[in-house]
Amino acid sequence: MQISRAIAEQMERPSWIRRMFETGTQLRRERGAENVFDYSIGNPDVEPPDAVIAALRRIVAENRPRSHSYMPNAGYPEVRATLARRLAERSGIPFTGDDILMTNGAAGAINTILKAILDPGDEVMVLSPYFPEYRFYIENHAGRVVLVETDERFQPDPARIAAALTPRTRALILNSPNNPTGVIYSEAVLRAVNRVLPDPVLVICDEPYRPIAFDGAVTPEAVRIFDRAVIAWSWSKAMAIPGERIGYLALPPHLPGVAQLRGACTVANRILGYINAPAIWQWVVGAEPEATVDVAQYQAKRDLLCDALQSMGYDAPRPQGAFYVWAKTPIADDIAFIGLLQQEGILAVPGIGFGRTGYMRLSLTITRDAIERSLPGFERALRKAKANCPPMNAELAGSRLS
Ligand SMILES: Cc1ncc(COP(=O)(O)O)c(C=O)c1O
Known about the structure:
The chain is an alpha/beta fold. The chain has two domains: 5-48 and 294-397, Aspartate Aminotransferase, domain 1 (Alpha-Beta Complex); 70-287, Type I PLP-dependent aspartate aminotransferase-like (Major domain) (Aspartate Aminotransferase, domain 2, 3-Layer(aba) Sandwich), CATH 3.40.640.10. 42% of the residues lie in helices and 13% in strands. The strands form three sheets. A seven-stranded mixed beta sheet has the order 2-8-7-6-5-3-4, sandwiched between helices. Strands 9-12-11 form a three-stranded antiparallel beta sheet. Helix 3 (50-62) packs across helix 11 (279-287), helix 12 runs parallel beside helix 14 and helix 13 (334-343) crosses helix 14 (368-386). It is globular and about 60 Å long. The site of pyridoxal-5'-phosphate (PLP) has 13 residues, from helix 5.
């Protein structure tokens, strides 16, 4: 059976996160699971909060009539009203239930808004380094990806954004706290970005990591700052439930043309095949919207890893949020360095996988014990890199991207 040219081409594009996942399976077979230190994938390693599991049990036990039926495509009105109230309290914007569309995670929310606003050839700006799935989401709707580099601190650069605008620009995706850099975008920078964005460019605030911020940092409320912004929210990371696929798209009531946009998003959510967000999980998040995993344990792992890497001589600043360490590779060739780490049983994603060479992403979704046991390997890899030792994994080194 023939597959489409577009998907064939997308399948060919190297996904470094997936490749590391597969390498991990192979390494575990060869060395034993306890000798593999997997920093590659952002899959939470903690259990959901007790309150979430308790709400799930309660809701299933209640077995309300027609709990498993079709519903309005935007989701249960009661749940949407509850979530809108919480969001209004937090943001100061008078959201109502009508402004909330329940989605299959942030990925569902982003695909829904892109489907609602893009015509073929329209452009979407993505700040680099970037979450690589954005490219697929945009191309799903025949959009064109326009990469815009961030500044030296990985903050948005208003001048570069202004220079990348064209008459076809329809949206800018902003992700803060950021995957992969762990940076929280500052309010001053966001205000400067707002000043350069003309109507009708829409800012899509992808915020699945908002609750995961360290040292008391608070992520500025982008929907208050931008004239035209929507929120793609998800409980995947906040509650450590990425397999349950639950989130929402929030459309601020002051958005120009909001009524039509709401209708467009509701239809998009339906015809993309999502139909509606998972029913039981809508009730769960409606019952416990603020329940969050223990952020302190991510912070403790961040401190352990960053402090150890820095004392060895790595340039590995502490992230402000999300659960990734974005460190410079000691040699410019990040793929070669990833090969050296792999010899030590350490799996990391090279920066090129996020559009920036010379870096690596280390996910903190790994146990404290594994971090501690991996540290000698980081030290040996650094020593080898400094001694100009070539990578031994020829396959990995050979699969370099251009
Ligand atoms: C930046 C970013 N956006 C969106 C997503 C998708 O999240 P969800 O599971 O809510 O669809 C992820 C998942 O890793 C992510 O890192």
